[in-house]
TrEMBL record:
<dbReference type="InterPro" id="IPR034660">
    <property type="entry name" value="DinB/YfiT-like"/>
</dbReference>
<dbReference type="GO" id="GO:0046872">
    <property type="term" value="F:metal ion binding"/>
</dbReference>
<dbReference type="Pfam" id="PF11716">
    <property type="entry name" value="MDMPI_N"/>
</dbReference>
<feature type="domain" description="Mycothiol-dependent maleylpyruvate isomerase metal-binding">
    <location>
        <begin position="13"/>
        <end position="137"/>
    </location>
</feature>
<protein>
    <recommendedName>
        <fullName>Mycothiol-dependent maleylpyruvate isomerase metal-binding domain-containing protein</fullName>
    </recommendedName>
</protein>
<dbReference type="InterPro" id="IPR024344">
    <property type="entry name" value="MDMPI_metal-binding"/>
</dbReference>
């Protein structure tokens, strides 16, 4: 019998399953150049690696994070049915490891892809991956927007993932070029992003002065991850096309 995937622990799991199963594996998505099958491969690899690294920490035998190619290569060789079973098996394993992690200090730092994450962030990161890639499949339906708009999604994107999300865009800067921007959602903290000379910064801050762009919470998460809402009017700005273009170039995602 397949191990259980706790939908209280991973409430984004079932919406992801529903989204994927309603489309062909070869159907395109909002994630550039990825089909639904590519997203399933990515998610299975994410679940496997998050469980593997967190389990190593829990057992006192730390392991390094493998590259995407290392974890996804074997999955790409599977047929669609075996791949789907692999995703469910790896999610169930992550569920078990995350449950075991409830019994250890939550503030411990665990090495993950060149940075560290707190123990609870491992399950939270999988939740974010499920929410984001559900949107990649469905687009801007109301349920997807609601999931992306939850406050924890912004916090996790900034605190746990923020700097890696800016590295790709920062590589496009000209020598000596500097970008700083405030991404505002009314009634919440600003997300402040900055990049110069190969260094990046991202943080939550009290609203102060004019915003570079103003949008809703779901669209801001999409922007941080290098995506765009289908309706461009959800993004408002008065800084002009040159500045806004530079900022959106910085927000390139992985």
């Amino acid at each position: 019998m397949r191990a259980k995937i706790d939908t209280d622990r991973f409430p984004e799991w079932q919406p992801f399953v529903d989204a994927v199963q309603q489309r062909r594996p070869d159907a395109g998505t909002w994630c550039e150049a990825w089909t639904v099958r590519d997203i399933v491969i990515h998610q299975a690899g994410n679940a496997e690696e998050l469980a593997r690294v967190l389990r190593g920490h829990l057992e006192g035998q730390p392991v390094g994070t493998r590259s995407f190619e290392e974890r996804e290569g074997p999955l790409r060789a599977m047929n669609d049915a075996d791949l789907w079973n692999a995703l469910q098996d790896r999610m169930a394993t992550l569920n078990e490891v995350a449950e075991a992690a409830d019994r250890v200090p939550a503030d411990a730092d665990v090495a993950w892809t060149g940075r560290t994450m707190k123990v609870p962030w491992f399950a939270e990161h999988m939740r974010e991956e499920l929410a984001l890639h559900s949107w990649d499949v469905t687009g801007d339906d109301a349920a997807a927007q609601a999931r992306l708009g939850e406050p924890w999604m912004t916090t996790h994107s900034v605190i746990a993932v923020g700097k890696p999300l800016l590295v790709k865009g920062a590589k496009r800067l000209e020598p000596g070029e500097r970008i700083e921007a405030r991404l505002r959602v009314p009634g919440t903290d600003d997300v402040v992003v900055a990049a110069e000379n190969g260094s990046v910064r991202i943080e939550l801050a009290d609203p102060d002065g004019p915003a570079t762009l103003e949008t809703d919470a779901a669209a801001r998460v999409l922007l941080l991850w290098g995506r765009r809402p289908a309706d461009p009017s959800r993004i408002c700005s008065t800084v002009g096309p040159k500045t806004l273009g530079r900022v959106r170039s910085l927000l390139a995602g992985y």
